[in-house]
Amino acid sequence: MGQLLSTGAKIHTVSIPTAAPGPTGTEGDELWRVLRPLIEKKSWDKVHAIILEQQLAIIALTEDHPTGNHLTPLQVALLHHFPVFIVKSLLELCPAAATMKDFQSEMRTPLHDLMVSSKTAPSYLDGALLRTFIDANPSCLLVGDVNGSLPLHTALECRIGTALIHALIQSCPMAARKKTTMGKLPLHFAAEVTTLSAARLR
Fold first, then answer.
1. How far apart are CA 164 and CA 153, in angstroms?
2. Which long-range contacts (CB under 8 A, 24 or more apart) does 76-85 make?
3. Three-state DSSP class for 63?
């Protein structure tokens, strides 16, 4: 098992990888054939056991998606609302997956996707899941999408709960001072779509 990356509040500058096709062929296809029915049945303990047994194969694994993306196991996990303990294991295996952007026009990271999907599945994103990302790779809080929006901007735009907004700010205070490509601070998003006190973002 890889070591969990935990650097506290210190944020490192990193080069951001982009999700790309992984190895195709018998091994990857067979692994998905085993995993898909377990995912559909929500047999999470069995899914987790396979992840732990097939670590190297899991890291290299991708799945084709109708959008044209090649989803990483972490993206698949979030799409299917895997439990936090499995997401944690995936991030321990590959912390860089937290900053990996997709091929879609928005160029979002998994954390951006979590914020957006919370509009249709509000109960999935909670403090434990957010903390799992922050502990594994705090740099994910400073990765912008195609518009320069950090997860904090997107969280505010998607009306994420106040407690999660505060957790994002406390974990990465500098994010509150970052502008999008349109020159918008998180404060502007807060004023537009939430009742969050402006003083919290100053």
1. 12
2. 76/39, 78/110, 78/113, 78/114, 78/117, 79/113, 79/117, 80/39, 81/121, 81/124, 82/39, 82/44, 82/47, 83/44, 84/128, 84/129, 84/132, 85/44, 85/48
3. strand
Any bridge partners for residue 63, and if so which? Answer: 71
Ordered domains of the chain (ranges, CATH): 18-96 (no CATH), 105-202 (1.25.40.20)
The predicted-structure confidence for 164-186, as pLDDT tens digits, reads as follows: 999 999 999 999 999 999 999 99
Helical H segments across the chain, by residue range? 26-40, 44-53, 55-60, 73-79, 84-93, 110-117, 127-136, 151-157, 162-171, 186-193
Chain segment 61-109, per-residue pLDDT in tens: 777 666 556 778 998 999 899 999 999 999 999 999 999 988 766 889 9
Q: Determine the Cα–Cα distance for residues 108 and 158; give it in Å rounded to an integer.
A: 14
For residue 141, give the nearest of 184, 177, 182, 171 by alpha carbon: 171
Q: How far is the CA of 86 from the CAs of 13, 68, 81, 93, 96, in angstroms?
A: 27, 25, 10, 11, 16
